[in-house]
Amino acid sequence: MMKGSQQNWITRDKAVNWHPYTQMKTAHPIPIVRGDGIYLFDADGRRYLDMVSSWWVTLHGHAHPYIAAKVAEQLTTLEQVIFAGFTHPGAVELAERLLALLPENQHKVFYSDNGSTAVEVGLKMCVQYAHNTGKRKTKILALENGYHGDTFGAMSVSGRGKWTAPFCDMLFDVLFVDAPASENIEATKLLIERHKEELACFIYEPLVQGAGGMLMHEAKYLKELMEYCRDRGVLLIQDEVFVGFGRTGRLFAADHIGATPDIMCFSKGLTGGTMPLGITTCSDFIYNAFYNDDKQKALFHGHSFTASPLACAAALASLDLLLSPSTQQNIQQIVNQHHAFARYVDGHPKLQQVRQCGTILVLEWKTGHGSSYFSEISEFLYPFFLDRGILVRPLGNVLYLVPPFCISGEQLNYVYDQILEALDNS
Ligand SMILES: *Cc1c(COP(=O)(O)O)cnc(C)c1O
């Protein structure tokens, strides 16, 4: 790369682009011109270890040649076809292969474009399910500190805060409860019992609440809540957009819980992080409530790029890699290394808590003024790690590692060493 082009891209970017979740006045986006495995490279040739999997999407590393070859092949075979009135092999094969990996009660796949749309589809399925079966249920149960996306429906069911404040009058009615734990489960059940007639569904991030601060809850209390809802006709939407495809150490969070949802949402790792694609799966009994001679009972939802053949090809290629013994071995290696490091730093005087779920490792710094997105600790940690060639994106005082599964033991140890230095210096 030509020296000096880094500044050129920065200037041109600033002139025309508006970045997500970014106060542009203080922003300094880094131009990245190439990716290879665990690394991203800037225009000056500096490399960054991608410890956030580029916003939790990358599974097998950047610019993976196998996925690239499969997508290239698809590009010159069939790049796009309308998915209403038509279908294509990639959409069929991906649905077949994904359903075979999910809990047995998941029978149908509905394609969309991203995590937020996968959630919108799930919510609409539940509300129209009630409508189609002659009931009126429009209230939704969700968890405090949850995150399900940035479109209006997804925002409505996400925890309310600074992000949603400008829109709060426009978000629909949601009943929020704390993430399930021994001390609140009975109170939550009482609330559900009281509202069961109007509750269309319960939507939740299983085991790990990602954007809300990488908060974790125990599978056994979630299971209890799921079963309680099921017994009262409240449908269950399990949002595996973040945790799906190996992040928890198993393929899906569902594999840890021992209770099955009615609807599941996927995106992020679905294509190995190469292309946007969303999937909402559901049980037959939901699908059957729309399956009718009456055209009015159809699910009226779709996007221009529904079931993009390119994204399906990427997802199929990613599944090949994910299910390979070497990737499964790498995942276990990450889980074990995280576990050992978590035990090593647990109890450090600067840390409030250390927690882990599979390949997700979380270190929560102690702060004087509580957890906040704008807290100073993140403003210290972000540049500290960047200077050491590591990309992290702390949520307030919460530093988390969500590495692509191709990371080596050595690379992970390098990151741990820098964390120990950050603890010494913070
Ligand atoms: C990121 C995320 C979403 C939204 O996905 P987008 O593709 O960013 O719209 C939904 N649910 C969860 C749990 C997420 O982490």
TrEMBL record:
Cofactors (names): pyridoxal 5'-phosphate
Cell compartments where the protein resides: Cytoplasm
Highest taxon of the lineage: Bacteria
Modified residues (N6-(pyridoxal phosphate)lysine): K268
Binding site for pyridoxal 5'-phosphate: G115, S116, D239, H303, S304
Site (Participates in the substrate recognition with KAPA and in a stacking interaction with the adenine ring of SAM): Y21
Catalytic activity field: (8S)-8-amino-7-oxononanoate + S-adenosyl-L-methionine = S-adenosyl-4-methylsulfanyl-2-oxobutanoate + (7R,8S)-7,8-diammoniononanoate
GO molecular function: adenosylmethionine-8-amino-7-oxononanoate transaminase activity
Binding site for substrate: W55, Y147, K268, G302, R393
Alphabetical keyword list: Aminotransferase, Biotin biosynthesis, Cytoplasm, Pyridoxal phosphate, S-adenosyl-L-methionine, Transferase
UniProt-listed CDD domains: OAT_like
This enzyme's EC code(s): 2.6.1.62
Pathway terms, separated by semicolons: Cofactor biosynthesis; biotin biosynthesis; 7,8-diaminononanoate from 8-amino-7-oxononanoate (SAM route): step 1/1
Subunit-structure text: Homodimer.
Family: Belongs to the class-III pyridoxal-phosphate-dependent aminotransferase family. BioA subfamily.
Biological role: Catalyzes the transfer of the alpha-amino group from S-adenosyl-L-methionine (SAM) to 7-keto-8-aminopelargonic acid (KAPA) to form 7,8-diaminopelargonic acid (DAPA). It is the only aminotransferase known to utilize SAM as an amino donor.
Name under which the protein is recorded: Adenosylmethionine-8-amino-7-oxononanoate aminotransferase
Organism of this sequence: Sphingobacterium suaedae
Gene: bioA
